[in-house]
Amino acid sequence: MPGRRRSDIRDKIIGLGENSHKKSYYPQLVDQLEEIKRQKESLEKKNHELKNLLEQLSLSKEKAEESERLKSAFLANMSHEIRTPMNGIMGFTDLLKKPGLSFEEHQQFIEIIQKSGERMLNTINDIIDISKIDAGQIEVHFTTINLREELESFYNFFYPQAAKKTIDLKVTNRLTANQETFITDATKFSSIITNLVRNALKYTFSGSIEVLFEKKDNFFFCYVKDTGIGIPEDRKQAIFERFIQGDIQDKRALEGSGLGLAIAKSYVDILDGKIWFESVEGKGTTFFVNLPWKDKNANLNQETKNKKAIDVIESKLSMLPSKFKVLIVEDDKVNALYLNMLLKKHCSELLLATGGVEAVEKVRNNPDIDLVLLDIKIPDINGYMAADEIRKFNKHVIIIAQTAYAFPGDKQKAIAKGFNDYMVKPLNKNDLLATIAKHIK
């Protein structure tokens, strides 16, 4: 039995060896499995991140492509909206040169030229207004308007365009006689309604457009309703955004700037109102506007102040010294002639400079100059630099900028350079005289 006992012992020793090997191998296997698991989780995480990145890149690509389409459409719109009225201005100006025109034709051509100029200016103003809105530089000037007259004015203005497209333009006045007087910012009110009707005309090709005015509770309420193409579901969320249109395809890219609805909404917000719409694609759109109704008496004090201000201006202008000397700094002959015509009645002497260096020298050589109307974009040195140089030797002369620069920050820059005031072209006679009078001591 001793041999068998030795064999059993050997088997046990071998068995223990095998178990020992297994015990040392299992932890390695577990570690390997854990490592594989970690690698799998890491790969899944990276795969998820890569998937998100691809989705973001896809969205960015879509936005970039849409932005490019909008940019192209916007540039096409601007070209159209500037070239079309310019064609009217140049074409009818040329016709005015022809002899034998009747008085009626002469007046008609002048009216067309004026309206074309206003249309082109409106396009430029749209872009400037958006910039001012973004910068918070829009001012509100409340005044009294007659809603019945405004409604008739909108009808008369848009009727020819509607008739050309064989669209039935309707206006509905649900205001009573004592509700027709309304206090608001007249310019912004007109812009709101005008942009809504233009939008309706743009996207309506048959049927009708209706504009309704009425008073609801303590609000002025109106709607502009059309039977046009409507707004697709995927465009509704963005319809009030800048340069966005209900349809941005090339076939309609040449109709409007894409700023009208954005400006309308901004102006409604500024006037503490509300704007919203209902639309079914293929069946038309209705835009609604609510504006707070202000009592007529609330504006009497302001109107009284305005009248007093006008009286003060007229009084100041009538008391100008007998020798009131003005320097016009303008390199454009037409603008220089226009300023000359506006001011010659109120000045004893008018001087002209066409560049910045010449302007500085004329002020230096004529210390009795009372007012400098200084353009910003002029040859040699610009208006900012010219004003800066003038202020080094003359602290008292009134310097007013008259310029086409109208973006946010331009006025502040001018004041910092020594200008007393800042006016944007095209210059209105009354505004110009009021600005001059404001600085007369």
Low-confidence stretches: 246-256
Whole-angstrom Rg = 36 Å
The total of beta strands comes to 12
Main-sheet strand order equals 2-4-5-7-6
Shape: extended
Determine the structural class based on helices, strands and strand pairing: alpha/beta
The sequence of SSEs as H and E is: HHEHEEHEEHHEEHEHEHEHEHEH
Termini separation: 137 Å
Summarize this entry quickly.
With 441 residues, the protein is α/β, with parallel strands linked by helices. It has 12 helices and 12 strands.
Structure explained in plain terms:
This protein is of the alpha/beta class and 441 residues long. 56% of the residues lie in helices and 17% in strands. The chain has a five-stranded mixed β-sheet, covered by helices on one side. A five-stranded parallel β-sheet has the order 9-8-10-11-12, sandwiched between helices. It has a two-stranded antiparallel sheet with strand order 1-3. Strand 10 (371-374), helix 10 (383-393) and strand 11 (398-403) form a beta-alpha-beta unit. The longest helix is centred in the first third of the chain and has 95 residues, at 2-96. The chain starts with a helix and ends with a helix.
